[in-house]
Specification:
With 214 residues, the protein is α+β, with helices and mostly antiparallel strands. It has helices at residues 12-21, 28-37, 52-60, 100-109, 201-204, and strands spanning 66-71, 75-80, 89-93, 97-99, 118-122, 128-132, 152-153, 160-169, 172-181, 192-193. The radius of gyration is 19 Å and the shape is globular.
């Protein structure tokens, strides 16, 4: 049963629905509670995107267990509303994928208060790319605020790590950046990751950004 819910803790309703689908009768609620109480991430990191549950969340952007909140000294941030186990997928970083050159140009044109919404990475072909998440709402999910773009930076207190995957979706290869918990995350804990930049990055355009020191 663990392969059905390998990298995201399922809800009780989801497990009960799966149990009923198997045709098992009786004790459905008890089975569901036992699964949830004993659940832990399973499988290798390379297989994370094989999970239909993760694929669905990437496609719908309906990440459960996270809340947007004002954080003192940081502006908006993302906090947990449930416990996340070490190795569990928390959410993704979502937005249009552009070249590194275009991403740097977007960054250059962006005022200081709106920096931090470009995620630079190398794709499976070794090309330097960028996910541009400057838009307040998602271009492919109209009216929806995606949570990954609001995760704040920290070098000292990072509790999630980004992982890149190249996956086949809608008949084409797409780049997906997933954030995975690198330790147990408690309820009401802000999730943070190291942006991998400093005040010297982008020709010292971040020289006055004090938040980069955190």
């Amino acid at each position: 049963m663990t392969e059905q819910f390998s990298r995201r803790m399922p809800t009780k309703d989801r497990v009960e629905a799966w149990v009923r689908k198997q045709g098992w009768k009786g004790m459905t609620a008890n089975i569901a509670m036992e699964v949830i109480q004993n659940w832990a991430p399973s499988g290798s990191d390379d297989c994370i995107m094989d999970s239909k549950q993760i694929q669905t969340m990437v496609e719908t952007q309906k990440w459960i267990g996270l809340h947007i909140r004002e954080v003192t000294g940081r502006g908006r941030g993302i906090v947990t509303t449930r416990i996340f186990q070490a190795g569990e997928v928390v959410c993704d970083y979502h937005g249009p994928v552009v070249s590194k050159k275009d991403g740097e140009e977007i960054h250059r044109r962006t005022n200081e208060k709106e920096t931090g919404y470009c995620f630079f990475f190398k794709n499976s072909k070794g090309l330097s790319m960028c996910i541009d998440a400057h838009s307040e709402t998602c271009h492919c999910h109209p009216g929806m605020q995606t949570v990954g773009r609001l995760i704040n930076h920290s070098k000292r207190d990072t509790n999630i790590k980004p992982m890149h995957f190249a996956v086949e979706m809608d008949g084409e290869e797409k780049d997906v950046i997933l954030f995975v918990a690198n330790r147990t995350l408690n309820v009401n804990e802000e999730i943070l990751f190291d942006y991998g930049v400093s005040r010297n990055s982008h020709n010292r355009e971040g020289a006055s950004c004090e938040w980069l020191d955190g």
